[in-house]
Each structure stands twice: as structure tokens, then as C-alpha cells.
Write a structure and sequence with these properties.
The structure is a single chain. It is built from ten helices and 14 strands. It is of the alpha/beta class and 410 residues long. The strands form three sheets. It has a seven-stranded parallel beta sheet. The two termini are 33 Å apart.
Length: 410
């Protein structure tokens, strides 16, 4: 793949993952059909009563843009097989659900595109509803005899991918999920990849076995980023849950991350040259949970004053080792280094390797100058700084922001 396709991806650094479907009515996460071994008859009630009357994708998109997100990925179809768009190849879809009757994917794509965000579509490779999908170890009917003729499902999958890539304008990212070694033959990945590249030449593809453009660790942050066997950095995006461990709406799980935790998580990704794809699971009526909204509004306030420490940034050059309890992000275009403080030091910060390399330093939130430490002549014992380090005076009081940032112009 041509490197130019990654320009927007590397500049963005922050995206919104949306796990939404009829499983939101069960309110026990997107895997409840598998975990509880629910057959179609038991699961059908969620389709029948799916009535997203509070669905407001324009509000979702405005919140995402304000929070500094530059792209979104929406679950057009999850493992349960229910489609958010008007697919011509199934009646198991939002436009046929009796209390919905509309193309939800269309509304989402149009709203986010109007806010200037790139468009990503998630498509589940497994499909527990399709009669020809393989009954594997995760299928709700795994205790029943396995089906063997999966060829009709392969064609169904390819037809639906063609729909998604021809009916919704430019799709910037196609996010597959659910490929396991025992089911890889089902996808016919070489033919599917050729179809994708023919329909959308500039698209980025994720998690298609043998044809993925970037890596995507899930609910984990690689300490040193993602590299190939030779040690060269690879493009990557960490996908992370907002609350608990479920991706879909889970009513009884109140373990929501705070604004500060989300910001530290974002910086941990960017400081290792990765993106953060942060998930929100809207509820059965189509609304974001209040705690997710409150947290993202806090992220938006922080981004208003700190976005240039995120967008267009990557990990710092190895010649600049990170100070204790800090992470660096680096903008190579402006040669600016950003020190993100995970804890607040006592009046000073020691910056190894930066002794004579910083032209000017300031706190980013208010552009207040940070001066080199003036070492007094009395009441100081022992070495304060290594010869190649820079020591800056910091405000005595921690700035009133969830994650303080110093801006260092090299």
C-alpha cells in the first residue's frame, strides 16, 4: 500500500469506535447471544422491539469532533448478523425491523462526514444468523451439529462488502473482525481483498488475514509501539473500551474511565506513534450513556487548549529519553516536543538529553513561560542535573487541567 494513504491516519491519532446494534436492548454486551447460547427465536425479540427514537447521529458527530476525534468506525454488522444498512441480501436489517424502518448507517455516515471526520466501517466476518456460516466454538449453536457448506456465506459476505463500498461514498477505513485460524478459509481473503482495492483504491483495511494495512492491539497498549521482525515501526491503532470490558451497551457495568484516564490512555498511544480508537456503546434508544458524554466533554475541554500535542504527533526520537512520570509526543513538522505530566513534580523537571537543544519552553494550556532553573548559591547539596540535561522551573501549583503539558520548541 502506498504510504500516502496513511497521511490522514497518522495526523488524526484519535478516533471513535461505535458498537451499536439490537444487542443494546439486551444491555449485556455485544457477545450476549454467544455467551448465553441464544438461538434466533430467543434473539428475535431484540429485532422486534428495536426502536431507536433518540438516535441523533449529528449530536454524536459534534461531540466526537469537539473531543478531537478525526475519524469514526461504526459496526455496520456485528457477529449477530444484524445489519444497520438496507442490504439487498437479507431481511435481517434495520430497514426491516418493525419499529426502526430506516437506514441507520446512512444517517451515521452522513452526520460524521458533515463534521469533517473520516469514515470507517466495521464488518463482522462471522455471522451467527446466516444459515451457512460455520458453527465454530463461539457460535450460539455450538452444541448442535456443525454445518459444512459455507460457500453461500462467502458469496453473501462479498456481496455485502460490495454494497458498503459502493453505496456510501468514500470509505476511508474498513475494519474487519472475528477471523480465527479455523475459519479463515471462509472469507476467501485474496478475492475479497482484490474486490476492496478495486472499489476503494485509497482505503485502509484492518484485520483481513494476510491483507491488513496496520496492526490493532485490543484492550492493550504496547509499551514500545508495534514493530516488524526487523525492529521497524509499523502503523498501529489500539482499540479500547470506555467502560468495563464490553464494547456494546452494558447497563450494569458502571466502570467508566475518567477524563484523566482517557487522556493518559490517548497519550500512551500517541507517544508510541499509535492511534487510539475509543469505543462508545449507545443504548437501545440510540443515546450515548451519560457518563460517556460527560467524559468526552471533559476531553473536549482539554483538547481546546492541548490538541497540538496530539494531532500530527508521534513518538519522540530516541535521543530524547522521557523524564520520570512523563510521556513525550513529538511534532516533526514544527520540531516541537510535548511533555505530558502523569504526575506533578515538585517545582522542577529534569529533561535528559535536552541541555542545549530547547530554544523556548512554556506550559501549553496558557502559554506561560518555563525558565531554566536558576541554581542558588546556598542551601543546595549534591548534583541537581546531568551535564546534558535541561532543568526547568515549574509552577508550584499543578495547573488546573486533567493532564498538564509542557511545550518545548527545539
Amino acid at each position: 500500500m502506498m504510504q500516502k494513504n496513511f497521511d490522514w491516519f497518522h495526523e488524526a491519532r484519535f478516533g471513535l469506535f461505535l458498537h451499536w446494534g439490537v444487542y443494546a436492548l439486551g444491555a449485556r454486551g455485544e457477545w450476549q447471544q454467544s455467551h448465553e447460547e441464544l438461538g434466533d427465536e430467543d434473539y428475535r425479540k431484540y429485532v422486534e422491539y428495536f426502536q431507536p427514537d433518540l438516535f441523533d447521529p449529528a449530536a454524536w458527530a459534534r461531540l466526537a469532533r469537539a473531543a478531537g476525534m478525526k475519524y469514526m468506525v461504526i459496526t455496520a454488522k456485528h457477529h449477530d448478523g444484524f445489519c444497520l444498512w438496507d442490504s439487498q441480501f437479507t431481511d435481517y436489517k434495520a430497514t426491516a425491523a418493525p419499529r426502526c424502518r430506516r437506514d441507520l448507517l446512512r444517517g451515521i455516515v452522513d452526520a460524521f462526514r458533515a463534521e469533517g471526520l473520516k469514515i470507517g466501517i466495521y464488518y463482522s466476518l462471522p455471522d451467527w444468523h446466516h444459515p451457512n456460516y460455520v458453527i465454530d466454538a463461539r457460535h450460539p449453536l455450538r452444541r448442535h451439529p456443525a454445518r459444512c457448506d459455507f460457500a453461500p456465506y462467502t458469496e453473501y459476505l462479498h456481496h455485502q462488502v460490495r454494497e458498503l463500498l459502493t453505496h456510501y461514498g468514500q470509505v476511508d477505513l474498513l475494519w474487519f473482525d472475528g477471523s480465527y485460524p479455523e475459519t479463515e478459509a471462509v472469507w476467501d481473503a485474496p478475492r475479497l481483498n482484490a474486490l476492496i482495492r478495486r472499489l476503494q483504491p485509497n482505503i485502509l483495511v484492518n484485520r483481513l488475514p494476510g491483507f491488513s494495512d496496520f496492526d490493532s492491539p485490543e484492550q492493550a497498549i504496547p509499551g514500545e509501539g508495534v514493530r516488524d521482525a526487523a525492529g521497524n515501526p509499523l502503523p498501529w491503532e489500539g482499540c479500547q473500551v470506555f467502560r468495563g470490558s464490553a464494547w456494546g451497551y452494558s447497563r450494569d457495568d458502571d466502570r467508566c474511565k475518567s477524563t484523566g484516564e482517557v487522556l493518559e490512555m490517548l497519550v500512551r498511544h500517541v507517544s508510541r506513534s499509535g492511534n487510539l480508537l475509543l469505543n462508545v456503546g449507545p443504548d437501545g434508544r440510540g443515546a450515548f450513556p451519560d457518563d460517556s458524554v460527560n467524559c468526552l466533554q471533559g476531553v473536549a475541554r482539554w483538547m481546546t487548549r492541548h490538541n497540538r500535542a496530539i494531532h500530527g504527533c508521534s513518538g519522540a526520537p530516541e535521543e530524547f529519553p522521557e523524564p520520570k512520570d512523563c510521556r513525550y509526543t513529538w511534532n516533526p513538522a514544527t520540531r516541537t516536543l510535548y511533555a505530558h505530566f502523569f504526575s506533578w513534580p515538585d517545582r522542577r523537571i529534569l529533561l535528559p538529553g535536552l541541555g542545549d537543544k530547547v530554544k523556548y519552553a512554556q506550559m501549553l494550556h496558557d502559554a506561560s513561560e518555563l525558565r531554566p532553573l536558576q541554581i542558588p548559591h546556598t542551601n543546595v547539596h549534591g548534583q541537581l542535573s546531568a551535564a546534558d540535561a535541561l532543568q526547568l522551573e515549574l509552577p508550584v501549583k499543578r495547573p488546573d487541567t486533567p493532564l498538564p503539558v509542557a511545550e518545548l520548541f527545539l
